[in-house]
Q: What sequence folds into this?
């Protein structure tokens, strides 16, 4: 449990330090306008934000892996492509986020049905919940990676919207709920008295994830 707590703390700190800008629109015209409005100085357009997540710096920093491998050169044209990639990744982040939300709700509903099920029906519900949990975990991990590894924003785009700040804080809650749901799920087979707590964890995660996704619209 101590190792789990340390892991949770580290990941929460990483999420709390997330990039606080977001892409409201994902069209090529929007990206072009961002570059044009950034500055007339090409050097200013190319500059990366001083504050980047560790995961962003590893790939997209001045000496990041993609720079060293010459896959993503730090040029004006390269940064323009990166902003388009960023827009696509953050849009995908929202899509997989909604899929994850549906998964947590489904887990909670299946858990409620298991309370009154017996025999073959119970076994079927257990298998269904296990499958749903696996799919949800993959969707949640994909959602996190899309956000954590997206290319950095423009230097000129520094102002964070209030909705994005709320999204950041709620992410800490649904991350804790995600871990709690999986930890409890691994113990419910031997300790059925923990099943109500797993259901609460799943619904709590969904309750935090839903407004976190909605907050991105504001």
A:
């Amino acid at each position: 449990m101590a190792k789990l707590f340390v892991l949770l703390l580290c990941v929460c700190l990483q999420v709390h330090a997330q990039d606080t800008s977001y892409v409201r629109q994902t069209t090529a015209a929007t990206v072009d306008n961002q570059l044009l409005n950034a500055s007339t100085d090409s050097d200013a357009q190319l500059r990366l934000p001083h504050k980047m997540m560790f995961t962003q710096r590893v790939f997209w920093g001045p000496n990041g892996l993609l720079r060293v491998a010459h896959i993503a050169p730090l040029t004006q044209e390269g940064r323009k492509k990166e902003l388009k990639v960023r827009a696509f990744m953050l849009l995908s982040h929202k899509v997989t986020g909604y899929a994850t939300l549906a998964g947590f709700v489904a887990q909670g509903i299946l858990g409620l049905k298991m309370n009154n099920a017996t025999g073959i029906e119970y076994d079927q519900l257990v298998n269904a919940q296990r499958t749903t949990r696996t799919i949800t975990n993959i969707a949640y991990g994909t959602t996190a990676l899309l956000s954590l590894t997206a290319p950095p924003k423009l230097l000129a785009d520094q102002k964070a919207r209030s909705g994005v700040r709320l999204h950041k804080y709620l992410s800490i809650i649904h991350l804790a709920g995600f871990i709690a749901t999986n930890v409890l799920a691994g113990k419910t087979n031997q300790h059925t008295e923990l099943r109500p707590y797993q259901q609460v964890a799943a619904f709590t995660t969904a309750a935090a994830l839903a407004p976190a996704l909605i907050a991105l619209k504001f």
User: Anything to note?
Assistant: The radius of gyration is 20 Å.
